[in-house]
Amino acid sequence: MARITAGVACSHIPALGAAIDNGKTHEDYWKPAFAGFDWTRAWEAAQKPDVIVLVYNDHASAFDMNIIPTFAIGCADEYAIADEGWGPRPVPAVKGHADLAWHLAQCLILDEFDMTIFNQMEVDHGLTVPLSMMFGQPKAWPCKVVPLSVNVVTYPPPTANRCWLLGEAIARAVESFPEDLNVQIWGTGGMSHQLQGPRAGLINTPWDTAFLDDLTANPERLRHIQHIELLRETGSEGIELVMWMIMRGALGPSIKELHRHYHVPASNTALGHIVLEKIA
Ligand code: DHB
Ligand code: FE
Q1: Looking at residue 240, what DSSP letter applies?
Q2: Among 80, 170, 213, 265, which lies 20 to 30 A Cα-Cα from 86?
């Protein structure tokens, strides 16, 4: 049977991808931001996941105001890299796992989550930067990816609790897939950041730290955080953190925090990263 073994969360700051692509990770500004991923790169190399259910948001690269799916799942064999204005990032195409993805889509919809299904989609920094942080610069990504996109760009995004419940449903669906697969679930985006308006540059380290602590200590509190608190405390783009709740909901009650990294500043954003192991 397929099983979810671990959850990983990390910010998907595009400047991190640009630092990798342009050979700048050794520079004084970037070094401490990347150092916190050394542990995870070694851990991922040992874990060798077969598939990642990668929860991310599209930033008007593939979806725009013409189509705004709250939750969408990719069922394709391959996803091209989006051109976000400076050309597509020089990273390998992302390989899908169509059989698992169609199984997830079927289970989730029958479990009363109205997923949009996409079979062709270009993926942007929301998905590619976390892959680069965890796997570096390989010729091909070492595992398959099921992209699961969440609308956090146009109001209203789904609630934290709805995301948690979707995570629980994803776990049920993965566990009913007959192939023996080591599956990880990743949540991306966050932590506190606001990229526009008078509060641009907002970062809230105490709030972020309490959120990281409570992923293990009190996830029940996080389920019930309202949008107004996310907007007030973490800025307009901090709302991306609802995607971490899908990851956390999928892991179930028993988890162990294996690794954490928090670094400010990284571009305009508080860079957060955590690795949680599911205890069977
Ligand atoms: C930045 C962060 C994001 O999450 C994003 O999608 C775009 C930009 C930033 O910090 O620059
Ligand atoms: Fe973002």
Answers
A1: G
A2: 265
Is 181 in a helix, a strand, or coil?
Answer: coil
- With a Cβ cut-off of 6 Å, ligand 1 is lined by 12-15, 59, 189, 193, 195, 237, 267-269
Question: Nearest-CA neighbor of 123 among 170, 157, 99, 89?
Answer: 89
CATH of domain 3-278: 3.40.830.10
CA gap 91, 89 in Å, rounded: 6
Instruction: Output the pTM of the full model.
Output: 0.98
SS (H, E, C) 108-176: HHHCCCCCEEECCCEECHHHHHHHHHHHCCCCCCCCEEEEEEECCCCCCCCCHHHHHHHHHHHHHHHHC
Give the total residue count for the chain: 280
Residue 244 alpha carbon to ligand 2 centre in Å: 13
**d(C-alpha 117, C-alpha 168), whole Å:** 19
Residue tagged 């049920």 (tokens): 172
Beta-carbon count within 10 A of 155 CB? 11
pLDDT at 45 over 90: yes
Domain boundaries along the sequence of the chain = 3-278
